[in-house]
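Hi R.,

As promised on Friday, here is the backbone we talked about, encoded as structure tokens. Could you run it through your design pipeline when you get a chance and send me back a sequence?
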């Protein structure tokens, strides 16, 4: 560089290079009083900085940004994706127009910055992901429920087939049971007759036993009287 090598020259050359090469970009939003307070506290933000005012994004740029962030979403079709992207740009520009009308009527400023647009897209994607997760859970439950219903229907059909096969056997068993009941009824009637007959014989035997006992008692009395 043709500069004598000394400490002061090195420091001076370093400062010149930093001033020429180092660039710092500060991004600040005009919303609220934060920018005004910073400018009052640090006047060099105005005196020593180049201020670039970024004007509102056109709707085409908004659509391009939305398309970039929403291209990875799982949507039913590309037509739905295109309509969604265009809706994002339209919503943001319509809010800016409504903010102008709101200021004319209420004298209050409402700002819509690119950050708010990105927040809108982020909120939509997160909300959509949550709803899609709920739909997936419900769909899984429905699939499991339908599977269980199909399995139950198959079991019922199998039981019906088994019941159809067993129907002649059950009919034969029912007929045998009816015949057995009729036989039991007949045998019970005969048993009742025998029971009545036994009861009559029992009464006769009891009367004869009483007579024998009376004769035995008289004989015992006579024997007792005859004995010394």
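Update: got your reply. Pasting your designed sequence below so it's all in one thread:
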């Amino acid at each position: 560089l043709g500069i004598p090598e000394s400490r002061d020259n090195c420091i001076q050359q370093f400062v010149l290079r930093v001033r020429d090469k180092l660039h710092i970009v500060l991004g600040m939003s005009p919303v609220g009083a934060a920018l005004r307070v910073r400018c009052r506290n640090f006047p060099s933000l105005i005196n020593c900085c180049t201020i670039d005012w970024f004007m509102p994004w056109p709707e085409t740029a908004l659509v391009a940004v939305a398309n970039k962030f929403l291209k990875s979403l799982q949507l039913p079709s590309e037509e739905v994706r295109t309509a969604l992207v265009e809706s994002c740009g339209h919503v943001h520009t319509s809010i800016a127009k409504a903010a102008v009308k709101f200021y004319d009527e209420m004298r209050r400023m409402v700002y819509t910055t690119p950050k708010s647009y990105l927040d809108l897209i982020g909120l939509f994607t997160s909300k959509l992901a949550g709803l899609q997760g709920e739909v997936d859970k419900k769909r899984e439950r429905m699939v499991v429920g339908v599977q269980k219903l199909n399995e139950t229907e198959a079991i019922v059909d199998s039981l019906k087939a088994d019941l159809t096969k067993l129907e002649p056997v059950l009919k034969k068993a029912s007929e045998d049971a009816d015949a057995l009941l009729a036989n039991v009824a007949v045998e019970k009637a005969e048993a009742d007759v025998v029971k009545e007959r036994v009861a009559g014989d029992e009464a006769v035997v009891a009367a004869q036993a009483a007579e024998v006992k009376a004769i035995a008692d008289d004989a015992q009395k006579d024997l007792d009287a005859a004995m010394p």
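One thing I noticed while checking it: The helical segments are 7-21, 34-41, 44-47, 59-70, 78-106, 114-226.

Thanks again,
M.
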